[in-house]
Design a protein that fits this description.
Thiol Ester Dehydrase, Chain A
Length: 155
């Protein structure tokens, strides 16, 4: 296969994963946008507001987990074109309270090529400071990507 065709296929996979992310029902609760710029890298843009706050006036830990898990997951799944990955473990380190404003979750594949993948992610707040980081382990499932509603290349 010529390199141009491989790049086209890879880009089609990235766009289909972005579409899958957008179609997930959970993202009606967490308004966000996924971008996969290259293999093994995912970036998710969120806007944190008071809907995500705990009683202390900052983002609840569920928001941190959601953003970190998704960014790491899609960084890993960008390397897998046939199956949906599943999170099997995820470790979090919360270093700074998140207040209202834009947040970027940056995910990066670390290791794994066959069945189990490791990826990490970090949250960057509106001031450009890291607010959290996490590392996840993801395993290939029996769920074919092609059969999932939403997994399609953008028109």
């Amino acid at each position: 296969m010529p390199p141009e065709a491989m790049l086209e296929g890879e880009q089609a996979h990235f766009r289909a994963l972005e579409s899958l992310y957008a179609a997930a029902p959970i993202n009606r609760l967490f308004e966000s946008t996924l971008e996969i710029p290259q293999s093994g890298v995912a970036r998710i843009s969120f806007d944190i507001d008071e809907r995500y706050f705990h009683a202390g006036g900052a983002a609840h830990g569920t928001s941190y987990f959601k953003m970190l898990d998704d960014a790491a997951f899609y960084a890993a799944n960008s390397l897998v074109t046939d199956r949906f990955l599943l999170t099997t473990a995820f470790n979090l380190l919360l270093t700074k309270p998140l207040k209202a404003g834009p947040v970027i979750a940056e995910g990066r594949w670390v290791s794994g090529h066959r069945r189990v993948f490791v990826a990490e992610a970090r949250l960057i707040d509106a001031d450009g400071e890291e607010a959290a980081r996490g590392t996840g382990t993801f395993m290939k499932s029996r769920i074919p990507l092609a059969g999932l509603p939403g997994y399609r290349a953008a028109p």
